[in-house]
Amino acid sequence: MNEYTSIGRFFEGLRPVPRISVAEWADRYRYLSPVSSAEPGRYRTDRTPYLRRIMECLSVHEPYKKIVFMKGAQVGATESGTNFIGYVMHISPAPAMFVQPTEEMVKRLSQGRIDPLIEMCPEVKARVAVNKSRDSKNTIMQKSFDGGVLLFAGANSAAGLRSVPIRFLILDEVDAYPKDLDDEGSPIELAIARTRTFPNKKIYIVSTPTISGLSVIESEFLETDQNYYHVPCPYCGGMQPLTFSQLKWDEGRPETAKYECIHCGARMEERHKVEMFAHGEWVASKPEKSNPDTIGFHLNSLYSPFGWQSWGEIAADFVKAKDNQSRLKVFVNTTLGETWAERGEAPPFKNLYNRRESYRTNSVPDDVCFITAGVDVQRDRLELEIVGWCADKRSYSIDYRVIDGDTAGKKVWDELAEVVGERWVRRDGAELPLQLMAVDSGYNTTHVYTFCRRFSGSRVIPTKGQDGQKMAVMPPKSVDVTKAGKRVGKTKLWNIGVSLLKGELYSDLRLEKDSDGNPPPGYCHFPEYDEHYFRGLTAEEQVVKIVRGYRHTVWVKKYERNEPLDCRIYARAAATILGLDRLPPEKLAALGGLAAKSEPSKSVKPKGERKRRRSSFWDR
């Protein structure tokens, strides 16, 4: 760099920042690449006019230091953050950081969005360090530019968040961040701590929400004036925010969805979106919380521009999800941009006891497709539930058993092995084998691993419950099996999202039959077990606790004997592994298979002809 250039840049640095907003900058300088956009070409804020005010608040001449955006999918939120980065690099250079949930997501962002932004914008490209193989100034995790640097960090890496001071910070999808990072606290707080030395900082917090009471973005949004985008009715002109309750469609035809005006009752069509959004305005629902430093916005996917996600598609997504709690939760979070209210309290056990059915234990109704079992391991006994699953996720408890004996010995495991070989005669005459048995490895782990290794990995599996896991079942991991301190082999361990499955179970237990006696999808059928079983099935409740200043949900016992709950969760996890949540009904029906009558089998004997062990447990 010569002297003239150095002096020129010195004086350039003394110039005041041009009074241009992020939205104006994007309209003037931003071009979308076909690599990262379905609509390549010049960026137009008019395509998503509701983002204009948000991007104005991100502009350096606006007073706001924290901008909170709680949103649904398909509304252009990521592009608003990308525009902010281009604006910083070109107009207001300073240290900046972009944080995403994981380092893998960071790499996709850096290569898929930021690199095309730089390449397609000559004004930015001229200011960014040339990408050289031996030059660390321009890498996937760092982009140096005149007057500043853009750092990328995954919220799962404490090292990436403990870097240089930062003036501009984007925290993307914060509800997916870990609550505590390597025992150093919240990654959000670690990142925000980097901005303390800048009185003119900007912190942009964006996310789809998750669980009510635990959602970070919800907590941040509720501390603001809570702005919603109001649009005019094309017929009466009445202003209103778009809410899902006003989306109407013909019975059985979600593709006919239209939006019904709350003022005049007229129904708006998809084609009206462009004009409606263009004349919309943000309105604070909590003006008493207005703050010169912080502002909050909420937007759901009903505002997705014409040609992106239609109202008909949203209605169809709801129809598919409404009878499935897991899918409905995703719909509420990602489409409505709202938190999901978990019902972690168990239904009264008496309600379940009073609605028992008269079918015989170890009998299998015709609509059962396949059978799984969940096993809980205690010091002096094994407990297990055998569950039949239907194509609509209804379940029948086939039997609940207790095998008494020292679980550090061999006898109880030999008896459990006999269960693996049993077959149950369905009412139509077909014999159904046990498709998968899931055994909890939390107690006497080595003996559990040794037992599971007796069978192929597709018949009996060891499991381990994980409270904070966001998936019902994670792919298995290989673990060592030891004997007398020496490694004797390996087995596959499956981690189970017990909190997620408990919440789903308690939702299913509240389901009721309709007026004609028909059970809904997910309904749980039980034979005439005694009260102790139902007390155990509803033994826990979900409570919120404050840990290091952050809210966490934990499951606590309200009844000591919770083994029936654990057994049901492991049986449900086994059903998930087999495909209960992803396979179509016809494939689920084929899972059980029709056992050939000529094959040797150990069919279950009718009640009364087989030794029962439950009384030895319940009488304790």
Give a written overview of the molecule.
With 620 residues, the protein is of the alpha/beta class. It folds into two domains: 11-228 and 288-310, Rossmann fold, CATH 3.40.50.300; 349-615, 2-Layer Sandwich (Nucleotidyltransferase, domain 5). Helix content is 29%, strand content 25%. It has 20 helices and 27 strands. Strands 3, 4, 5, 6, 7, 8, 9, 10, 14 and 15 form a ten-stranded mixed sheet that branches. Strands 16, 17, 18, 19, 20, 21, 22, 23, 24 and 27 form a ten-stranded mixed sheet that branches. Helix 15 links the parallel strand 20 (431-440) and strand 21 (460-465). It is globular. The protein starts with a helix and ends with a helix. The relative contact order is 0.09.
Overview in brief:
The protein is of the alpha/beta class and 620 residues long. It has 20 helices and 27 strands.
**Rg measurement, Å:** 29 Å
Number of helices: 20
CATH architecture of the largest domain: 2-Layer Sandwich
Average of the residue pLDDT scores: 86
SSE inventory with pairings:
Blueprint: H1 3-14, H2 22-29, E1 31-32, E2 41-42, H3 51-58, E3 66-71, H4 77-90, E4 96-100, H5 103-120, H6 122-125, E5 142-145, E6 148-154, H7 158-161, E7 168-172, H8 187-192, E8 202-207, H9 216-222, E9 227-232, E10 239-241, E11 247-250, E12 253-260, E13 267-268, H10 273-278, E14 281-284, E15 294-299, H11 311-321, H12 325-334, H13 349-354, E16 368-377, E17 381-390, E18 395-404, H14 411-420, E19 422-425, E20 431-440, H15 445-452, E21 460-465, E22 477-483, E23 486-496, H16 498-509, E24 524-525, H17 531-537, E25 540-547, E26 550-557, H18 563-578, H19 585-592, E27 602-603, H20 614-618
Parallel strand pairs: 3-8, 3-15, 4-6, 4-7, 7-8, 9-15, 16-20, 18-24, 19-27, 20-21, 21-23
Antiparallel strand pairs: 1-2, 5-6, 9-10, 9-14, 11-12, 12-13, 16-17, 17-18, 19-20, 22-23, 25-26
